Amino acid sequence: MKILQVTPFFKPLWESGGVARVAYDISHNLHENGHDVTVYTTNRSIYPSDLPTNRATSVDGMNVYYFENLRKYIRGVTPPVMPYRMPAVARREIAQFDVIHIHDHRTLLTVIASHYARKYGVPYVLQAHGALPQDTGSTRMKRLFDLLWAKKVILGAAGVIALNETEAARYRALGVAEKKIAIVPNGIDFAEYPNLPARGSFRAAWGIDGATKVVLYLGRLDPTKGIDLLIRSFAEVEREFDDAVLMLVGGDMGYNGEFRQRVRSLGLDDRVVFTGFVSKEDKMAAYTDADVFVTPSFTGFPVTFLEACLCGTPIVTTGHGDLLGWVDNTVGFNTGYTPEALASAIGRLLADDALRARFGEQAKELVRTRYNWQAIVHDIETLYADIANGGRGATGRGTGERSPARV
User: What is the dihedral of CA 36, 42, 44, 45, to 10 degrees?
Assistant: First the structure.
């Protein structure tokens, strides 16, 4: 099949978050399976890049357009991603694709790609990646986008991908027909992780000895992730485990000043480490060296959870935002969204070496058997073939229907 992937960011802009990684992993596995894959994306997220812009370039065998992103010229605010050259390319090329997969629905790339897809009768799959709620992040911008475009973009899709049952229910509430909804989790491409690091290298780099308990958060340092709650909960953990440290691994999204002030106010300066953005190798070393991986709040299906599982690191999370039921009492704990509940779950794991070991082994087995990209992409290929042949209510290329997939 000739497939177009549309994503605001792509390899190598990993600092932009999980959508870039998921879009790459799906695209790369589709290419490896023999499909002709093109990617529309942009050239910049947070940090400068020297990527070739506004023309097709080869990335791991795929044709990738890194459209110049005008928002890099606007200082002091965070406007939408603005790929000003994309309409000219989309108008010329989109009719040639069999199916389009759009990642992250509230972007101008989505508006442009979905417009030309409808114009030329090319079915598209929409994957919101947990971003359907309006009450996180820039709520004003989300409400404006939804007022102008959301209904047309979402309801115009031939199929939508939900990462979990919570997100599937949100699609239904927006009026998406049940037959269009496929629940497909994120996964891991094991070829990307051929050798996990030996325990100790990340600790050594930051001057942390082997006996110290390490509580890890890894991802965007954004208030929507519950970072402030985690810091407050760690203040309680530290009272019981005076050798514990909290490592906050991820790029500054503009809120680190607030987080550092919270750390100072709780007297935790010597117990909380801000590492900044780290390489893939250092990221995996951080998981390996951590005793507990904590993400208080999330939407969708974070790849970080799967990476932690791959390294055998137990997880603590909550049901604030979305809920992943497979975590609780299998690879870690789902707990309440309060400092006390989070601290209690973290403390329970830090205090019990055998429990951590058991959850760690179960985590490794789970990710290898259920959440590998090869199996997941096979289901995505089935979804593409279905809608390209007219299933799931697609318009312009047939009238067949099938029941939604559950992966």
Answer: -90
User: Are 377 and 30 a contacting pair, CB within 8 Å?
Assistant: yes
Cβ proximity of 63 and 39 under 8 Å: yes
Residues across the chain? 407
Q: For 191-370, which CATH superfamily applies?
A: Glycogen Phosphorylase B; (3.40.50.2000)
Q: At what angle do helices 108-120 and 86-93 cross, to 10 degrees?
A: 20
Beta pairing class for 272-276 and 292-295:
unpaired
Position 18 scores a pLDDT of 84
Instruction: List, by residue range, all CATH 3.40.50.2000 domains of the chain.
Output: 2-187+373-388, 191-370
Q: At residue 300, what is the residue type? A: G
CB 366 within 8 A of CB 153: no
Whether pLDDT at 47 is above 90: no
Task: Determine which of 75-84, 196-205, 206-215, 335-344 has the lowest per-residue pLDDT on average.
Answer: 75-84
To the nearest whole percent, how much of the chain has pLDDT over 70?
A: 90
Query: For residue 188, what are the β-bridge partners?
Result: 372
pTM: 0.73
For 148, other C-beta atoms within 10 Å of its C-beta total 11
Taking phi over 0 as left and psi of -120 to 50 as alpha, with beta for the rest, 111 belongs to alpha
Judge whether 246 and 339 are in contact, CB under 8 Å: no
**pLDDT tens-digit map of 176-195:** 999 999 999 999 888 888 89
Asked if residues 77 and 120 have their Cβ atoms less than 8 Å apart, the reply is: no
Walk across the sheet containing 245-249 and list its strands. 272-276, 245-249, 214-218, 292-295, 315-318, 332-335
Residue 403 has a pLDDT of 35
- The model's pLDDT over 376-390, given as tens digits with 9 standing for 90+, comes to 999 999 999 999 998
- Please state which CATH class domain 2-187+373-388 belongs to: alpha beta
Q: What is the mean pLDDT of residues 212-238?
A: 97
Helix (H, G, I), strand (E, B) or coil at 362: helix
End-to-end CA distance of the chain: 22
